[in-house]
Amino acid sequence: xxxxxxxxxxxxxxxxxxxxxxxxxxxxxxxxxxxxxxxxxxxxxxxxxxxxxxxxxxxxxxxxxxxxxxxxxxxxxxxxxxxxxxxxxxxxxxxxxxxxxxxxxxxxxxxxxxxxxxxxxxxxxxxxxxxxxxxxxxxxxxxxxxxxxxxxxxxxxxxxxxxxxxxxxxxxxxxxxxxxxxxxxxxxxxxxxxxxxxxxxxxxxxxxxxxxxxxxxxxxxxxxxxxxxxxxxxxxxxxxxxxxxxxxxxxxxxxx
Length: 256
Ligand code: PEP
Fold this sequence. Notes:
40% of the residues lie in helices and 15% in strands. The chain is an alpha/beta fold. The longest helix has 18 residues, at 184-201. The radius of gyration is 17 Å and the shape is globular.
């Protein structure tokens, strides 16, 4: 089954204008395999600068701009929030939705996340829907139940057919920013569970959804992770702030 591969950079609340420029010129020289797309998600104040610099530097077409979050509301009295229309105006193509930090720190529920996914799709943008279990949930063998409980509300709100335009990032919470990566076998087994869960609703769609792995991916472990059948790239935090390391990760992705 042919699926696009995606390597996405989640800068979180890090980065600067100089890093935007450095990343754009670094990525312009990276050799990407066919069917691989790269998405850089800087903080909101840097989105326009990325778009402008990317245009000026003639950035290769398969490198895109992403946002780290968005409001589920169209517009109005939501101080501090950013709408999908605003993201469209600054040439954003992808939006990370439901990152574990948004779920745990800002108490986003799976239903709210589902409505954000819907808003992103309605605006013609691509959501990168993050799901993942905590360490406790993994050790008490609740991983599948947790992932199902995060996916089902999205299926209920948007319908399985719309998943054709959704990217899913499986990010075990215990692996994010900890240096503890899931083994390639563990990550593959969980990705397979996710694909089968979607396949219960629609097999054709399930086989087309890119499933990214996230959680302490780096230049040393990316190749083995990306070699797994159901891992179609990665969502990269810490290592995406280092241009040379991120380039290695991007060039190790293979479109399947
Ligand atoms: C993330 O924040 O999505 C992430 C995967 O972070 P890190 O790569 O630093 O674990």
